[in-house]
Specification:
heterodimer; A: 524 residues; alpha/beta; D-Maltodextrin-Binding Protein, domain 2; Rossmann fold; 21 helices; 18 strands; globular; B: 354 residues; 2 domains
Chain lengths: 524, 354
């Protein structure tokens, strides 16, 4: 170091630290003609609205955001559906998208706006017990705590959401320990230890926002999320005890929020894009982003959020689609705790004809026939238990399928045959059937449990909503119900069913039923 | 098969780099000074010169000389494709000799105007240099300056050595961070350096030699995993996130030494030449008379040359204010075709581990 000092000094003199006087380098002006940028964005970017409102005043560039999941957004870009409808995409990360040539070729320039590492928030009492408030654990320590029952945590579905995806990559890269980016063959080596890690996963969801809300109400110890979200959660003060933000010492994977222009954008839009992104990267705006969102700045010389540590190690991110697909496939088929799901399916008379056909097609999409980018991650996975519970005037006979690890497609084909055989008759006993579904979760303690309820009308026989809401608190094990609105479904009642069970309503009245079934997969 | 692969790789690689037309003059804001540009001249240029063409002082000066210059920024590989597609360009301004030669050959041109150059440097940190010095990777060159020995880096990559094994902190392989060579010229500069070192010091010329050095190149490129698509993103990562993310990065010297504006270097920032290094040579190729006139203005106008220096470039004819330290050991790039072969091979699942 001493020998280097003169060199360092020379560098310091050469490069200096003071900004150039304004006279020789005029401050950039980002104003210009009014233009609107239509942006397909990740839902976590909703918190940028105040910044973008200010930006519109300064630059004349108005941003309209349409929110979607990362994978769905990638799908839309790859198919060309985003061209003409949107001018840019803005997700927390486009790393997955970049590995898909059909999607990548539709992108133009990308500008990083901010950053946030994906880390682990642990309730402070638990962090103290584990000693993680004093010394940061390695990912292998986290895996040991999870396997030993000392840590439970919530993490999103890595195919549906970037936080889960980043965490999966980080833990896999850290456990691999080679220091190189993972390749497809590395996954088999590290699978046993990854299974330890995922033994601690108690809660999953298709979106980070939803997971965070569910976590707050749950007894789970930890939450894997963006540093920014965890800090915001602590700032909001709604938790009974704050979360200790744990930065695994062998490294993290960070989101860098590339605001990415689509290749098909017009010249006016391109000029607007250049002005807007230039403005967003000015120091004052970056400071404002740090303060309002708790994310980190994308330009040098802007302070980090208070007490956010410096010098985080960034783990290498796999650079090929083969490696990423191998990792995701391993997660679903081997690493994660498998699911048991009861599909409570309305086969009353009103479902006859078109509606039944739609239901069959949508459910069949989960049996490996949908090969689209997002569809392929929705299919039923190895080890998973799928129970079909059709109902009309009363609950029908449940049929249980366990997807074989050796030949999963054969199992999926069986499920599809059963779906094909569904036929309509009679009335609509929604709540009797839900109660019956709750009886089908015995002996599944180590699985993710859920009920998907698909109905096109009001319950008109048997138990009512009130009977069901008084039944739920005593039901063991507790199970979330995810109702899908379809046809003339009773929206208010379905919302209550979701609320009382901790589930979520998915609306397929306007859009497509396949998408609803697929999205719910992220919560199973 | 090889051809199909290559096309697929190209399609995948072509990417992000097609940045839009960036309007350089801003007549509506009165920034073009008192001068009114007579002709609009469109060019295609490497993205590392974008800031120069965006600088209002450059646009003002060009306007006074009668030109309103519009540039599309593009990666080297895409530039050639863009020229074959579009006949609207008055000049091409690539950032490497092989690309310039390829354009001259493809369009049967002879005139080229070498304007400026910038050597590749390693942007790193004091504590990293300490570790590398102990491991004999940072060595003394014959002129007494410290350099990063590329042969030593190749050996570490071959063995999968981590920083931890060298006494550093990180359990990550010791690799020089680069951009993605499929997207960006600066990583292609690294291939020029590394292939020659891996080839025993001789420039790689044929298919067989590419095959011979490929395993080494695969490690240097593939083991990094996901890489930034432009040299600016790579340099930003170095500036903003520090040595935990980017312990050492191969960047253009101009990025590090530019004064327009000066980068805010992180604490302990150090710049070393790799040994050997390579010059990124910025050669303007006129495609019509206007392009030629712009090229000559950039070469001969003292103010434009001074501004190029301020942007960190070394003009063809040395002037005051440019970096004076000369790298000791400099290699030339392989031909465009050889580099193209390397890129194709690097992107082929059967040839590099995925």
């Amino acid at each position: 170091m001493r020998r280097l000092l003169p060199g360092l000094l020379a560098v310091a003199l050469l490069a200096g630290c003071t900004p150039e006087p304004q006279a020789s380098s005029p401050p950039p002006d980002f104003s210009g003609p009014p233009v609107t940028l239509r942006v397909l964005a990740g839902s976590e970017l909703a918190d940028m609205k105040p910044i973008l409102d200010e930006a519109a005043k300064a630059t004349g560039v108005t941003v309209t955001m349409t929110f979607t999941g990362t994978l769905e957004g990638t799908d839309a870009v790859a198919r060309g559906d985003a061209d003409g409808k949107y001018d840019a995409v803005w997700f927390s990360s486009t790393r997955y998208l970049q590995t898909i040539p059909e999607a990548k070729q539709r992108l133009s320039t990308a500008t990083r706006i901010m950053g946030s590492p994906v880390v682990l928030g642990v309730r402070s009492s638990v962090a103290r017990e584990l000693g993680w408030d004093r010394e940061a654990p390695a990912w292998s320590d986290i895996a040991s705590a999870a396997a030993g029952g000392r840590l439970s945590y919530a993490m999103t579905d890595p195919a549906a959401s970037n936080t889960g995806f980043s965490a999966l990559v980080a833990v896999a890269a850290a456990l691999d320990g080679s220091g190189r980016a993972l390749d497809a063959t590395a996954i088999d080596r590290i699978a046993p230890r990854l299974i330890d890690f995922f033994a601690g996963q108690q809660l999953t969801a298709g979106s980070t926002d939803w997971l965070t809300k569910a976590f707050v109400r749950s007894p789970v110890d930890g939450l894997i999320s963006y540093e920014a979200s965890l800090r915001s959660l602590n700032r909001a003060g709604t938790l009974p005890e704050p979360l200790t933000v744990v930065y695994p010492r062998d490294g993290v994977v960070s989101a860098d929020y590339p605001f990415t222009l689509l290749g098909a954008a017009t010249a006016d839009v391109r000029d607007g894009y250049r002005r807007l992104t230039g403005y967003l990267r000015t120091k004052d705006v970056q400071r404002s982003i740090v303060d309002k969102t708790q994310r980190r700045a994308a330009v040098p010389g802007v302070a980090r959020p208070d007490e956010a540590p410096d010098g985080l190690v960034e783990l290498p991110f796999p650079g090929t689609r083969a490696a990423i697909d191998a990792l995701l496939t391993a997660y679903f088929d081997r690493l994660r705790k498998p699911a048991r799901t009861v599909y409570v399916l309305d086969l009353s008379g009103s479902m006859e004809g078109q509606r039944l056909a739609e239901l069959k097609a949508a459910l069949s999409d989960l049996t490996g026939v949908d090969t689209s980018l997002s569809g392929k991650y929705c299919k039923f996975r190895s080890r998973e238990e799928v129970i079909l519970l059709p109902f009309s005037t009363e609950p029908g006979v449940p049929r249980t399928y366990t997807v074989s690890a050796e030949n999963p497609q054969a199992s999926r084909d069986q499920i599809r045959a059963a779906i094909d055989g569904l036929a309509t008759a009679g009335d609509t006993a929604v709540y009797d059937s839900l109660v019956a579904a709750y009886g089908l979760f015995g002996g599944a303690e180590d699985r993710f449990l859920s009920v998907v309820l698909m109905t096109d009308g009001e319950s008109n026989t048997g138990r009512g909503l009130g009977d069901f809401t008084s039944f739920v608190p005593g039901a063991a094990p507790p199970v979330r119900v995810f109702p899908i609105l379809f046809g003339e479904a009773a929206e208010q009642e379905m919302r209550q069913v979701a609320t009382v069970t901790g589930g979520e309503v998915f609306d397929a009245r306007q859009g497509d039923l396949s998408k609803a079934f697929c999205q719910i997969r992220g919560y199973q | 098969m090889a051809k199909g692969m290559r096309l697929a790789a190209l399609a995948a690689g072509v990417v992000l780099i097609i940045v839009a037309v960036v309007l350089v003059t801003r007549p509506d804001k009165g920034r073009a000074g008192d001068c009114r540009a007579a002709v609009t001249v469109r060019g295609v240029t490497g993205s590392e010169k974008q800031a120069y063409f965006d600088d209002p002082r450059v646009t003002d000066r060009l306007a006074c000389l009668g030109f309103r210059v519009e540039v599309d920024a593009s990666g080297s590989r895409d530039m050639v494709a863009a020229l074959h597609r579009d006949d609207g360009y008055a000049f091409a301004f690539p950032s490497s000799t092989p690309t310039a030669q390829k354009i001259l050959d493809d369009f049967r041109l002879t005139e080229k105007i070498p304007l400026f150059s910038t050597p590749m440097v390693v942007a790193t940190f004091g504590p990293i240099v300490d570790v590398l010095r102990n491991a004999d990777v940072v060595q003394k060159a014959s002129d007494g300056t410290e350099v990063v020995d590329v042969a030593a880096l190749l050996e570490l990559a071959r063995n999968g050595t981590t920083w931890e094994q060298l006494g550093g902190k990180y359990r990550k392989t010791v690799l020089l961070s680069t951009t993605d060579p499929l997207d960006s010229n600066s990583a292609i500069m690294y291939l020029s350096i590394a292939s020659q070192v891996a080839n025993g010091g001789a420039i790689v010329t044929g298919e067989q030699e590419v095959e011979h050095v490929l395993p080494e190149l695969c490690r240097l490129v593939a083991d990094q995993g996901d890489k930034p698509e432009t040299s600016q993103v790579l340099f930003d990562n170095y500036l903003v996130y520090g040595m935990g993310r980017t312990p050492m990065a191969l960047v253009y010297e101009s990025q590090y030494v530019t004064k327009a504006p000066r980068p805010q270097l992180p604490a302990g920032a150090v710049k070393l030449f790799p040994r050997p290094t390579v010059y990124s040579r910025h050669t303007l190729i006129p495609l019509d008379a206007n392009g030629e006139a712009v090229g000559k203005a950039l070469r001969d106008d003292p103010e434009l040359v001074r501004l190029a220096t301020e942007h960190g470039f070394r003009p063809e004819k040395p002037v005051a204010g440019q970096p004076t330290d000369q790298p000791v050991d400099v290699v030339e790039s392989p031909t465009y075709e050889v580099l193209e072969n390397m890129l194709t091979a690097l992107a082929s699942p059967g040839r590099c581990p995925q």
